[in-house]
Design brief:
This protein is an alpha+beta fold. It folds into two domains: about 1-110, no CATH class; about 130-195, no CATH class. Helix content is about 35%, strand content about 20%. It has helices spanning about 1-10, 40-50, 60-85, 90-110, 125-130, 210-215, and strands at about 15-20, 55, 135-140, 145, 150-155, 165-170, 180, 185-190. The strands form three sheets. It has a four-stranded antiparallel beta sheet, with no helix packed on it. A two-stranded parallel sheet has the order 1-2. Helix 2 (about 40-50) links the parallel strand 1 (about 15-20) and strand 2. The longest helix has 24 residues, at about 60-85. The protein is globular, with a radius of gyration of 24 Å.
């Protein structure tokens, strides 16, 4: 998600993303099968909002090209980091941006058959919303919604005391913050460090056999 947003912000809108059928790109009913066009991933939903088509690779030739590219990165990049003594994520990302990508492109890029670019400048200002993880939730009677065992309280608004029974969208943004929206209205926002603690897990179902034995012994 982050990498695709970087491309869109730096270069603009593009027509098609050609990729393998990994689970972050597509849902498939069975491993190695055809993609489920009616069940999109979060990335698929984001690109659909931008009008970008996703094209899954089915042919062995396409997968072979991708795997060779992966092997090039996986073989070269760790050695480049080792030689420079880079051992943390921040320094590695800085090296990728400022040195490695330019050198990689200089050595391996093949000149295009035609001049110009197919990218189109994107003038949208809502990329924070598009490139977020989105969940539909129904508001509880106490004006809360639950997200991954965390209870998010929606405060009262000037235009409506409670949203109980309504459907809202919870946006998990790339910076770690969480926003709740009811249609176009933002009704709650939590910074990454302000999220409520997860609820403790409650054991359900039959008690373990050891518990029964102790009870019988007592």
């Amino acid at each position: 998600m982050v990498a695709v947003r970087d491309v869109v912000e730096k270069h603009g809108w593009f027509a098609t993303l050609y990729s393998d059928r990994a689970t972050h790109f597509f849902h498939t009913r069975q491993a190695g099968g055809k993609v489920d066009a009616n069940n999109v991933t979060q990335l698929g939903r984001a690109l659909k909002e931008l009008g970008i088509q996703m094209m899954p690779a089915y042919s062995p030739q396409a997968r072979g090209r991708q795997e060779r590219n992966y092997r090039t990165w996986q073989g070269r990049l760790p050695q480049e980091l080792r030689v420079r003594g880079i051992s943390d994520v921040a320094d590695a990302n800085r090296f990728l941006r400022e040195e490695y990508l330019a050198e990689f492109n200089r050595r391996f890029t093949v000149p295009a058959a035609a001049k110009g670019t197919a990218f189109v400048r994107l003038r949208r200002r809502d990329l924070d919303w598009v490139f977020s993880i989105q969940y539909q939730r129904r508001v509880n009677n106490d004006n809360t919604v639950t997200l991954f065992n965390r209870v998010l309280q929606i405060p009262k608004t000037k235009w409506r005391n409670t949203l109980a029974g309504s459907t809202v969208t919870v946006y998990e943004q790339l910076d770690g913050s969480v926003v709740v929206r009811y249609g176009p209205r933002e009704v709650a926002r939590f910074a990454a460090g302000e999220l409520p603690e997860p609820l403790p897990k409650i054991r359900t179902g039959p008690r373990p056999l050891g518990h029964k034995r102790k009870a019988a012994a007592a």
